[in-house]
Amino acid sequence: GSNASTGGGSSKQRIVVSLDSEISTLEPQTFRTLGAFAATAGLYCAPLREQLAADGGMQKATGETKSGLAQSVEPSADGKKVTIRLRDAKFADGSPVTADDVAYTLKRAIDGPGYVKSLTPFLGLKASSQITVADPKTVELSVTQVSPLLKKFLTFQTFGAIEKKTVQAHATAADPWAAQWLSSHSTSCGPYTLDNYSSDLQ
Question: Concatenated DSSP letters for the chain?
């Protein structure tokens, strides 16, 4: 539902979403509750998005993808490289989303605390060294093969860009990927930003 106040000649809209499970964590690359998946969906923007179409009053996936954080995702003719070109976007703190942030996010998915590392070999990505930055707006993936699953996977929340400098500032020797910090904080580049968070309340 929505709640709007109209005092003082200005209006401020508030959307309240009721979930059937707690928001267990805000860490975008680990397993979490359905409530947590719903919350992080509004905080992180993946390279691609699922194409939706109206169907009987509902929006359903068509099986196609469209631009998200990436302007384009293109494989090379020989199938050995995938080029991800980014559109202009910003994190919640106003910093631009760069290829370095996206490459860090992809490498973190392989080397970090999440579960995606068990799936990336199906995309031709077995090591983080296969991910490189070509320029501030371009990430290149040197793949063993161009998988038909690649574009579908790049719509997953787990690949939503994480701000490298902020996460690294909260990393520790015991937690080099700052998973503990990200469990209750966000480096949002999606449509919403995080104001406050309590796992058992909101």
Answer: -EEEE-GGG--EEEE----SS------TTS---HHHHHHHHTT---SEEEEEEEETTEEEEEEEEEESSEEEEEE-TTSSEEEEEEPP-B-TTSPBP-HHHHHHHHHHHHHSSSSGGGTGGGGT--SGGGEEEEETTEEEEE-SS--TTHHHHTTSGGGS---HHHHHHT--SS-TT-HHHHTT-----SS-------TTT-
